[in-house]
Amino acid sequence: MSAMLEDNSQFQLRPMRPEDLTAVMAVELSAYTHPWTENIFRDCLRVGYQCWVAEIDQQLAGYSVMSVAVGEAHILNICIDPARQGQGMGRQLLQRMLHMAGELQADTAYLEVRESNQVAQALYESIGFNQIGQRHGYYPAVGGDEDALVYAKVL
To answer: Tens digits of per-residue pLDDT, 71-112?
Structure first.
């Protein structure tokens, strides 16, 4: 699937493959102080989660992981390379995940976001997510744990 960025350049969205994991980990390590491990991504692929990547000129620039079961979609990870953020790719990737969730008969999508990540919160809210709760100490953080805000969107 091809999509356009805000600067009118094109990027591709496609299912993640095991051979993508080295590039996925490079982005994960550049974006997070407490990243997922390669084995977590490998397990997500193995159990059939919706794992997708975004590429620009055949270079991995972002990815997402979503589980869908019993009418619920859980967006577990969505990440854009910090050097590529702010161009609309995260919005396009998230919208693709929501479209797929609907195709898989989910009626609600859920996600957690760090309380400090106001840019992501603004993105989620602009797409129609609403905060429905908070998980105290959910995320590991430098100097202690950080709360997660729980968001939901009716599909």
So the answer is: 999 999 999 999 999 888 999 999 999 999 999 999 999 999
CA distance 45 to 65: 9
CA distance 148 to 36: 16
Render pLDDT for 38-47 as a digit per residue (tens, 0 to 9).
999 999 999 9
Which listed residue (112, 139, 146, 151) is catalytic?
112
Lowest mean pLDDT among 95-99, 125-129, 141-145: 141-145
Q: List the domains of the chain with CATH numbers.
A: 2-154 (3.40.630.30)
Which amino acid appears at position 155 of this protein?
A: L
Rg (CA), the chain: 15
- Catalytic status, residue 112: yes
Of the residues 49, 63, 110, 124, only one is catalytic, namely 124
Helix axes 118-126, 89-103, angle to 10 degrees: 50
- Catalytic-residue membership of 32: no
